[in-house]
Each structure stands twice: as C-alpha cells, then as structure tokens.
Amino acid sequence: MDIVVLSPDTFLLFLTASLLLCIAPGPDNIFVLTQSMLRGVSSGLFVTLGLCTGLLVHTSAVALGVAVIFQQSLLAFTMLKLCGEAYLLYLAWGAFRAGASGLGSLKAAALDKTALYRRGIVMNITNPKVSIFFLAFLPQFTNPAQGHLTLQLLELGAIFIVCSLLVFGLVSLLAGKLGNWFNQSPKAEVIMNRVAGSVFAALAVKLSLTER
C-alpha cells in the first residue's frame, strides 16, 4: 500500500485550523488547566497524554467508520454521553470535597500519575461529540486522488494530536506555574478546588445539553 502524503497546501491549512481549535477554550484544555493548577505541571502533562490517547481512539473510530454509529444511533450517543456526565460529576464532587476538607497541596500533587493519565482518557472518549466532530472535520481535508482515505484520515488525526500535545503542554506549563503561586496560600488552594469543581459541574451540564 502506497504511503499517503498530504499536499503542502492541505497540510498548512489543516495545521492552522487544528492549532486554532486546540487554542479555543473547550472541555479538554480547561480540564488540563484546572488539573495543572491544582497538581502541578507534570500532572497536567499526564492528563494531556491521556486526552491525546483518547483522540487516538476517536481518530481510529472515524477512519474505520465506527463514529457513524454515534451519529446515527441516539441510544449509543446517549449512553456514552451519560457516562461522560457521570464521570464529570464524580470529578466535581471530588474537587468540592477536597476544597471543603482543606486538602493540602502535597497530598493533591501525590495523585498517581497513572490515575491522571486514565482520567484524561476517560474524559476524552466519553464525549461522543469528539468522534462526531472528527467525522465532520477530518474528511474535509481528504482527497480520493491522493490515495487511501483511511490512511489520510489517520494522518490528519496524527497531526491534530501533535497540535493538541503542543498546545495543552503549554497550557500545563503556564497553569502549573500559576498554581504553584496559589498553593502558597491554603485559602487560595481551597478556592482553586472549588473553582475546579464548578468547572467540572459546568462541563457536565454542557455535555447533558449536547445533541447530535
């Protein structure tokens, strides 16, 4: 099978669009922001790796046609959405509980990095809108004359994931530095936990209102 290479124009256009989409405020970069502020730069990076692993799942789903199921089946879409809502509410409950109990910054930072990585994966793959977005977005940059469409979709997905790693990594770095300053004050730490809980709850509400 021939290797698919995107044309320079298509590559630059897709790269620009992907970077702008990653920079725009959304559930994923807000999630990275709050976790980095609460637990430090490395925690934000592990969450970022988890989110990008989830994007691998969505890219594969689009390339293999599985995403069409979520677009056409209301039951499948609703079930995955409910899982995402429940998980976000669980995170919100944990954040509010940490804030109310005055959880120390060292204890917060001690959360297993593997758990943070898993948290990023679950956060991403339980949002069916990501698969549907990829289903609508990626094919716009394909060209049957360029070669196998599945390989083109996988290549486009890989570029988007690299953009996500770069943008979310920068968010982790900046938010982690800001979080270190806030964590010097126990009161500020409690406020940060409650803000994070509010963000998770808001994302859960937003997801519940999402339609196909």
SSE order and pairing:
Layout lengths: L7 H16 L3 H13 L1 H24 L2 H6 L1 H28 L3 H5 L3 H13 L2 H10 L11 H34 L3 H23 L4
Helix pairs in contact: 1-9, 2-3, 2-9, 2-10, 3-7, 3-8, 3-9, 5-10
Largest sheet composition: none
The figure for the number of domains is 1
Strand content: under 5%
Q: Based on DSSP secondary structure assignment, what is the total number of beta strands?
A: 0
On the 0-100 scale, what is the average pLDDT?
77
Structure description:
There is one protein chain. The protein has 212 residues and is mainly alpha-helical. The two termini are 35 Å apart. Helix 1 packs parallel to helix 9, helix 2 packs parallel to helix 9 and helix 2 packs antiparallel against helix 10. It contains ten helices and no strands. The protein has one domain. It is globular. Helix content is 81%, strand content 0%. About 5% of the residues have low confidence.
